[in-house]
Predict the structure.
Amino acid sequence: MFGKLDLSAIPLSQPIPLITSAIVILIAIGILALVTVRGWWPYLWSEWITSVDHKRIGIMYCLLGVLMLIRGFADAIMMRTQQAIAVNAPGYLPPEHYNQIFSAHGTIMILFGAMPLVLGFMNFLVPLQLGVRDVAFPTFNQVGFWLTASGALLVNLSLFIGEFARTGWLPYPPLSQTTYSPGVGVDYYLWAVQISGIGTLITGINIVTTVLKMRCRGMDYLRMPVFCWTALASCLLIVAAFPILTATLAMLTLDRYVGWHYFTSTAGGNPMMFVNLIWAWGHPEVYILVLPAFGIFSEIFSTFSGKPLFGYRSMVAATLFICVVSMLVWLHHFVTMGAGAAVNTFFGISSSIIAVGTGVKIYNWIFTMYGGRVRFEVPMLWSMGFIFTFIIGGLTGVLLAVPPADFMTHNSMFLVAHFHNVIIGGVVFGIFAGTEYWFPKAFGFRLHAGWGKAAFWCAFIGFWVTFTPLYVLGLDGMTRRLQHINFEEWRPWLYVSVAGIVILVIGVICQVVQLVVSIRNRDRLRDTTGDPWDGRSLEWATPSPPPFFNFAVMPNVEGEEAYWGIKQKAIETQQLSPEPQYHPIEMPINSPVGIYTAFFSTVFGFAMIWYIWWLAIAALVAAFAGFVVFAWRDVHEFEVPAEEVARVERARRASREALLERLSSQEVGS
Amino acid sequence: MSDLERDQSLEGSWSHGEHDHSPGDEPAEDAGHWIRNANLGLGFSVLLTVAAFALAGSDIIYPPAVPVALIVLAIAQMGVHLVFFLHITTGPDNTNNVLALVFGVMVVFLIVLGSIWIMDHLTQNMMPMEKMIEMQP
Amino acid sequence: MSDAGLPASVEALHRVQQDPHRLGHRAHGARDPRPGTGQGATGPAAKRILVGYGFWIYLLSDIVIFSCFFAAFAVQRHATAGGPTVGDIVDIPRVGWETAVLLLSSYTCMLSFAASNARNLLWTQILLLLTGLLGLVFVLLELQEFVDLASRGITPQRSAMLTSFFGLVGLHGVHVTAGGLWLATMMAQIQVKGFRPEINHRLICFNLFWHALDIVWIGIFTIVYLMGAVA
């Protein structure tokens, strides 16, 4: 009746998951109770859960990502402390548990932490920067978010019911086949990643269509902000690469569930094919993560240097170059698997060449600062920390790209240090920079700068203290994923690394404090004009937060840096552009289809994991029925009357008048 | 009023007669055009398909050339579908469609040919799986 | 604004600050955007274009999934583990029928779209029904083929080659089945709601999907069946 599920699935004999689960469940119940008691459900339901507004969806993606980053970070703390303690000693995490932790750490950080954050930024910003009202398929977008959340829920369920995979974040066969992983761990991974992969693909399709077919009048390709170019490149990669993940995991699922032989070690199966295919996805995946971060930095560098971005066209060219070449390098993840010199050479060269694209970008950022008036606000600090950190991380990457060198460093701590260097230095710093930069736009008040600076310095210093020892250890011969260490000489380095983790923990605390303090002081930190940073692109033309329809009248763009041009003209002529004609606006209505689909996807995934076949079928039927009901609806838009549009726009114009006065008086004074 | 003008739910429209096209789409006024395309498409497809079936396992052409010929015929058939059924053209209104298609085809070639190349080399260099299992204690 | 402390000449700096992207090259950005070419500079495209293009992009992702299954087949076509080879399992006459049926269904699908453009409800439904029936025949033929093979002990659990064969052909069959379900739902919708814009958009998508499935089938019958029989 319940398939493989029974009470033994609850980890009663393992204190750490048990206590963690208990705490998480209590917190969850507490939050649900609070919301119920305060009567917030109607608000949450109509304004957030059923919202199809790209801004709301973007914020929810980011919230999901932040929560999962914290969970992944907890795993990281456990791993680093275990390794420091377990030098010629057992440590406190038995191998079966430690293996789940490093698998969960990688899976969560990449697929449920970084990906949602990056998707969230793209969702929030792209329509605003393109001067349009929403993405191409708003309701579809919402479904995508909820599917991602469903996947995240499934991964976290594995903590209290059952177990997680012990294979690492990419479940290589034969270890991931039923012979060596008979439990539900790999199945949790497979279904969670498949379901959230659909969500990611949805965002990819949405953004590609939006960027290519939905821009405001006058916004040529070469007038788009660079963030939109990087979003386009990243989403093209999503559309190209995520299907590979879907197909490969489906093949592994078929192997596990019905005894097929794609990747088995018997009957002609080929485990190496899994490695090949999964990295054909895996490499584009990391570029999917980092390209939008590059876009974020491009926006920040130009704004905080008070100059247009240097070399716009070469930036675009470099972005597209990286997009294409990232699909030509995947073998460098398994150079040692034995494809031979010819194949290794090709991919070694392509992996070195791809660095050229990033090099072009870095020079452009530096030249953007040159000759400008640089303001060292918190986003700029993160950006400069990124330049330093990412250059070194990229250089170690080029070192790894050389096949003979990689034979020594493959799967060592050197590799681990490299990819954390580029992911943290690139993606995580980018996310924090972007959060700091666009938080006022999203919520209407700035974040406290002092705590922000503290958080940055802790992250920057903490990162280097944590990971430099790992570079050394890697060159010393330490392999990755060790549950215990047999070499006394490595102990001091491991201790230094733990010290770094402590600094990072302080950094995370600073971030949380920053948020709390900013919310407490939000009236003082209020962004009254919508343009707190003297921005250059169209999102800064809207109030903070923007109205749900973004722009009362879609802008007519006449040059690059659309908003900067508008601002300069206003300063010159000492007045705002003339008041436009107000028309009613059609906007899509809210819909529960997203959360409905996600609910049944979660049930389906859970049922498949535990072999509860009747429940899986029922969930599929229910999901299909819901889809048909949704497709049958007659009304899918509502009209915003012209008076409402006028009211919102006039309020915006009033605040802009105030900003104009302030800017003009600054001009006069300087 | 044609469909294209009626569902302008977003601002921004072009004057009548200048239309962007997604694949497989034609403005209503060219409906007769459709049927001609369909007939031509079916005709060419049938010819090419019959040719492919006839070639396979026969002596009509030099036998080692048959796989190559089959692939050429397959590509031709796919082309017929794209041009006649999906109406991919080289006009400026189709540029995005062609670019997306080229990108997709490039990815397909990379995956299929790349995998074949890599796995071939791996098979040459690595011990077969059965032998590896035999070696286990 | 103060330019203090900057080593470049004032004039050069001025030029950089005012002429950031041209850098001495010819001016750009002053051309009128070409309307109707979907380059986006004349404002957002109509919903019909967005839906069609978005679905085209989704189809490309679906083709990539198929290409992975093709790659698996290509790599494992000789991994028969002592069992039957591709030549042993292909049945050319049946594949010929399957191909003919699917091609014909693509044809009727296109005609149904022409009918829907002409707002002719009767012919649209007739042709859609034909498309669906032909698709059903295709799926039944394939099921018959699989059952036949299974009765001879030829199952995907036997070897890697059989796994990848059944996987690739089966994936295509699953897509055709899903398309059939979609078709049935849409025929009901058209009957109840008539030719509304959203319905027309979905018909565009269905057309794209159905033609794409035929394109994938061309790949399958050529590479798996015809070349398998030849080898």
The longest helix of chain C spans residues 160-193. Chain C has seven helices and no strands. Confidence is low (pLDDT under 50) at residues 1-8, 22-31 of chain C. The two ends of chain C are 77 Å apart (CA to CA).
